[in-house]
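lol ok so funny story. i was supposed to be doing the assay writeup but got distracted and ended up predicting the structure for this chain instead. priorities right. anyway since i did it might as well share w the group, maybe its usefull for someone
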Amino acid sequence: MMLAHIQRAWLRAKSRWSRSVRARLACSVAVAAALALAALLPARVALRSAASFPHVPPRRLAHHLADFSYHSRFYPHMGEWAVLEESSNGSAWRYEVEYACGERCSGRARVLALDSAHAHRIFVAHRTCSPPPALPWPALCDEWETETVVTGAGDPEGARLEEHVVAKCSWWRAISGACSRLLLQRRDAHFTHLHALFSVATSPAFH
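and the output, tada:
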């Protein structure tokens, strides 16, 4: 009888221990899932920049920025691209393209260019997606949107460019600073190309 009592006590203790282990395991899985989900959720990183282009007509600079054939010079990771749809009238030009952006990576961009008597506005929205290494799923995507305003710079032939870029990256990339560094690298490459093309020596201001 004593042996049966010991056995029952052992089974009760084992059951409580098993429930405790299962509870801790479930808690650990829930925390890991929450961290993984947070890593995938997008965080926003913004950057403003401005630069002057003496002796460059605003219309010429704006039309250069709106032409996607030049974008691969801004962003070396862009490969072959094709226009999916396009429309235009006297003051607006919009189109969408798809492009290669590396191994197992595909991108899309939407461009809208608006001309007026006082300013030229260009809106560009990029989205690039690729799966994790050695896995077919899920697709991890980065997005960034650029709003550019080109106006006169005080002289009849000069242009002033102001840009506002918003990038959407995963939380872990935003917290680690990788998203901000990539955004700055891309804008540096962007302005380096523009300054070389239009022979401008001044540097852009970022903030």
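The first helix runs from residue 2 to 40. DSSP finds five helices and eight strands in the chain.
back to the writeup now i swear
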